[in-house]
Design goal:
The chain has 62 residues and is an alpha+beta fold. The chain has one helix at 4-25; strands at residues 42-44, 49-51, 58-60.
């Protein structure tokens, strides 16, 4: 059974992650959003790819 403090911490963490995703949907920078990774992708214009420095996810730009 979780204590009240740990339950509140989990709820706050979940809501802050949802908030980050909502903000990222309106952002102009590409967003990683792979399994819990809440970071922006670093864009390499010359190669036409974007990658995440945290988890290593890479995707091609259109």
């Amino acid at each position: 059974m979780l204590t009240r403090a740990s339950t509140n911490a989990a709820a706050c963490r979940a809501s802050s992650m949802r908030r980050m995703r909502r903000r990222a949907a309106h952002a102009t920078r590409p967003y990683c959003a792979t399994n819990g990774c809440t970071s922006f992708l670093v864009v390499d214009e010359t190669a036409g790819i974007a990658h995440c420095e945290i988890c290593g996810y890479t995707r091609k730009l259109n």
